[in-house]
Amino acid sequence: MSHAPPKPLTALKSASLHGRLSVPGDKSISHRALLFGALSLGKTRIEGLLEAEDVLNTAKSVTALGAPAVKKGDIWEVTGRGVGGLNKPDGPLDFGNSGTGTRLMMGVLAGHDFPVELVGDASLSRRPMARVLDPLKTMGLEVDGENGDRLPLTVRGMCELVPIEYVLPVPSAQVKSAILLAGLHAEGETTVIEAEPTRDHTERMLRFFGAEVIATPDGDGRTRITVKGNPVLQGRDVKVPADPSSAAFLIAAAVIVPGSDVTVDGVLINPTRTGFYETLREMGADVTFENEREEGGEPVADIRARYCVLKGVSVPPARAPAMIDEYPVLACVAAFATGDTVMRGLAELRVKESDRLAATAAGLEANGVSCVTEGDTLTVKGCNVAVPGGGTVETHLDHRIAMAFLTMGLASEKPVTVDDTAMIATSFPEFLGLMGGLGARFSSPEGAVPGADA
Length: 454
Ligand code: S3P
Fold this sequence. Notes:
Blueprint: E1 9-12, E2 18-22, H1 27-38, E3 43-47, H2 53-64, E4 69-72, E5 75-79, E6 93-94, H3 99-109, E7 115-119, H4 130-139, E8 142-145, E9 153-156, E10 165-167, H5 173-183, E11 189-194, H6 201-209, E12 213-217, E13 223-228, E14 237-239, H7 244-256, E15 261-268, H8 275-282, E16 286-295, E17 298-306, E18 314-315, H9 327-334, E19 340-343, H10 356-366, E20 371-374, E21 377-381, E22 392-393, H11 399-409, E23 416-418, H12 431-438, E24 441-443
Parallel strand pairs: 2-15, 3-14, 6-7, 10-11, 18-19, 22-23
Antiparallel strand pairs: 1-23, 1-24, 3-5, 4-5, 7-9, 8-9, 11-13, 12-13, 15-17, 16-17, 19-21, 20-21
């Protein structure tokens, strides 16, 4: 997959941000709704699907596998094929930048007896797939590729997989989900054991579609998640709540730009996803969950954030899975705090869309913020409100690095430039427009300032 030419952008110190707004649907839930819809009988109707490149690639993939995902008005409709009922696609499935789409699809394809080639962009082609392929191979998946476990890869499943019991070696919801999805195609029970709770959308949504999924503590502080094979899944109506990982940038901006007051409506507050908000509160931020309610089987709330002076904190490693995608923006927020913020247990950041630990540290240093990386620990030395800025950040095809540093630039003394914003479209195409609507200022090399219509 080739990329459009890079689109650099500069964030400028902005006056207070104000507004009440919504952000698009959660990426993790959107991928799952499409995939589970494809494995169900009948129609699945999805309201609020995230229409970003990553999810649209999953929509194209299920369509290519014979389960068309089509937009009708505001609703996406998937015509499912039932568990094991997908068809061989005519060509490779291209997942672009998306690790979630690729890895969950590997679990689905493990239960189908035809070869499929999986491809992706330069970032995705660098990411490790063995974490998913190894357990899937023990269940019966065959894998062929020229770059070890990296894409492009051809996988070939089988109709009746061998059920396994698998202890997750890394805290990864993608790995857990791929195995549970393969377990749908195995005779008997497939069990995943996780030491640290990771996002549980697969478990919740598989149950909603009719699968038997049981999660029980194993007595050692770990959780055993078991799925029973060969269920009949029924198409459902799914409502996708707003993405807390996208809302995080708007909330972070409100917390660091003096005088701001911003509310993001209807955000998913599943406890496996809210570590960032918990950490902001510990830093002294004025962040509240208002109007808490349940929508589509997930807890949601309106999240309100107001500017506040922050203090550095120590973030416990056990919290990492619940805020794994938010460390770059947390590090940018920590730059404004008084004192050090210490983030431990960040090994998984090294295998995201970029090496996020290295990219975050480099971006901070380029903007005059001192930080120290020791093993899997990042310590950000807070600048006590006055973050120098003035640097250019290399984004390495990583949407969250781009958005984190553009957010930081809204409150830095000098402008902050990111070398490319094109990848923002993979998860949050509305980012610049929504930020602009709150009062955020950006400038591009052409001089245009993307506002609410950008
Ligand atoms: C995701 C899980 C996380 C996260 C990713 C989405 C998911 O990855 O970083 O953005 O939807 O399951 P890992 O499971 O690899 O930690």
